[in-house]
Specification:
By secondary structure, this protein is of the alpha+beta class. The protein is 33% helix and 24% strand. A five-stranded mixed barrel has the order 1-3-4-5-6. Helix 2 runs parallel beside helix 6, helix 4 crosses helix 6 and helix 5 runs antiparallel to helix 6. The radius of gyration is 18 Å and the shape is globular.
Amino acid sequence: MMGTKPARIPLFPLAGAILLPRSQLPLHIFEPRYREMVRDALAGPGRIGMIQPIPTLGDGDSSQPEPVPLFHAGCLGEIVAVEELDDGRFNIVLHGSNRFRLIAERDLGTAYRQADVDLAAFDDSEPPPLALAQRADVEREAKRFGDALGLAVDWSAVGQLDDEMLVNAIAQVAPFDAGAKQALLEEPTLAGRADLVVQLMQFQRLAPGGADVGQTLQ
């Protein structure tokens, strides 16, 4: 049985954006509180916890009280690239290290949110490869999904990705809703995530109205 590994980390709640271990996530940081977060992270361990806010009926309503509730699991990201713009905004790239579960948020006087988390809540060791048939299912459905979205994709390059990179890339960039993204994040195994991502692509492709390409991350 796994133990616990508590840590205190800054949180970046961003709807529709998930980070997974050994994957990367580029972010444009423009809000003052998150500029402060990046500056503090760069002055310290250089890590940020990506986590999704829980969708509510008040989404999009500026009168919605803060802080918004968060899902209980996210992923810790190490800042591996940073560009500070002249006006104080940042372009950064996070590299996922491991997933975490929230223990409790802490009010430490910063404009951004911080929390104590358990960094040992998930087994994020490198997974075994997918079965050949499952890998083929992922690629086949990804091509159908891409065609439904009208995307121009270099499928020969996609075929060169390793199993984890392929599945995680789809999980991160596909326009699934927040609940689906969270389910992908929390799925314990790569094989389980591969099955789920295939099911989600099929459902969204075949649902009335087809794939929704209007969703953006930030």
